[in-house]
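User: structure tokens for UvrABC system protein C, please.
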Amino acid sequence: MPDPATYRPAPGTIPEAPGVYRFSDPQGRVIYVGKAKSLRQRLNSYFADVAGLHPRTRQMVTTAGRVQWTVVRTEVEALQLEYNWIKEFDPRFNVRYRDDKTYPVLAVTLNEEYPRLHVYRGPRRKGVRYFGPYAHAWAIRETLDLLLRVFPARTCSAGVFRRHGQIGRPCLLGYIDKCSAPCVGRVTAEEHREIVEEFAEFLSGRTDRMIRELERRMQQASEDLEFERAARLRDDVGALKRAMERQAVVLGDGTDADVVAFAQDELEAAVQVFHVRGGRVRGQRGWVIDKTDETPDTAALVERFVTLFYGEQAALAEAADDASQPVPKEILVPELPADAGTLQQWLTGLRGSRVSLRVPQRGDKRALAETVERNAKEALAQHKLRRAGDLTARSAALQELQEALGLDQAPLRIECIDVSHVQGTNVVASLVVFEDGLAKKSDYRRFEVRDGAQGGDVASIAEVVRRRFRRYLAENRDGADASHGADDLDGTDGTDGSGPELVDAESLPKVRTGIDPETGRPRKFAYAPNLLVVDGGQPQVEAAADVLADLGIHDVAVCGLAKRLEEVWLPGDPDPVILSRTSEALYLLQRARDEAHRFAITYHRQRRSKSMVASELDGIPGLGPARRQALLRHFGSMKKIRAAEVDEIAGLPGFGRRTAEAVVAALHPEAAAPPDGGNPGARADEQHSAEHQAAAEHHTAGTSAEGAPGR
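Assistant: Done. Predicted tokens:
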């Protein structure tokens, strides 16, 4: 592995001017291309302490054997040169946009004597006009079917065209007037080309002029008493309008714009683009990319995407000799990059006129941007589902984990723990289970952290691990292991929160195998995981490993996934395990960590909302736990309870008027009058009675569920 110090440029030799640099491996292949306002400042950052670099950057600089640079005059020139080098060398460490699908376009072969309209996928060719892209090929065919009655152009292949020309009979489309049949000479080459050019103008957005012209012809035919011709023109106008209706108007001012949105996680990002022409969505496309340290946030993703995408569009238009503009007048993005002015200047040069790069703030454009963002999130979710559902990928992930962590066998059961809180309050934790690489939601568990809440995440992790594995021992071992107190066990199963019953000696034969004697099914925690994952770094991992050692459990592997750099930590190892950013093993660990985080956050929000409600309703005379729950069930929220009148509350089962007045007075102290005309004795008697009743209700109701199975 090359040492970056062996090819580091001598101090002072790197210029401070703007420019573009490229790293090459020992064989001379370019592996990374970048640009910088100051080459010296940027390149020196690559030769800092290697241990402090991002894992992907560290891999790049240790793979490279040489660095070169080119000085340019302006940042715009640097942007252009960077794009050219990326397209020329295709460096492995640069971001690669891979289509989540191959988008079809409608091609018009103007380079042929008799131009053809057809669905096309593939590289652009010179002399061919392209419209789209469309989300589906059937959308193109439906549009063609509507428009061919108005523009009866050729759609057949070259072989079919020659064959019908030889036999002297048109195809079916020629007989039903959806083709002008140039193959048999019904129209000349010039007349057919005129039809095709009108079709291209219509798809280019000149729709209103075309419809007005047809309506004028229809009116003239009616005045000339050519009613059949007028009826056909009327149907043509209707066909054009139906074709336009399929492309909904999203921007009423007829704006030409591309709307870009991103959805991302720590490893990947999905990009969606809506192409709006004449105020209508003319096309849509999407990509999924692997993130790198060069694209840590949305602004950087915007810069990289706009550079690569519109540079490629301009190159395709030039190669195909396409007269259409490769860059729209306006590009709407979620965030502006740091050098937005330079990027906008470069885009203006590609288009030949001013291009606006901005973030929509309000109105229809903001609403459309939110729609595109929802599509991006859906695309990323679908991509992850396809990847998670791939049996081959799951098998590879388990095999990679076994090899990377040095396990005796593949971790067929993985459990992941995460802690959630807000500044140490309402501390909760979650435990999620993955079997064979898939989430097993029936085995999810959530915990209210008690003893470890004051000790931070490390103490909380230790408490959850201890409670989970004491339950495991209680369900599988005999006497001494099954006699842990209920305080160690509650909160890990799906009971009512009072904790499972203690296992006595007489019942041990029934539970020693981990089988529930009543249902005949395995108990939820009768099996230990092959791998326990904690959300965190070395301190959290060591805490979990110490707890397992104290409990005498030595057959469960432990690792931690640190979110900042996606490093995998093992107990007793001072250095983390670095998995490839494209590794299926890292993807599986990340998915388990994210699922645990989601489950913990959900429970934490529930606990927080309940505590907020309880704090407002606590201490109200006559309002015990049962009545508080009845209020919440009936009204649904504290907002509606505050808006309720005394009569509404008094009408609930189990409520009297005095209790209702007490609730209203507590929630609206500024407007409440003392009950019973301000008689202190009456209020004292009522409060004493209410406290007595609340105590009785508390005694019979029990406590709320602390642990419940995931649904």
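User: Anything notable?

Assistant: The first strand starts at residue 19 and ends at 24.
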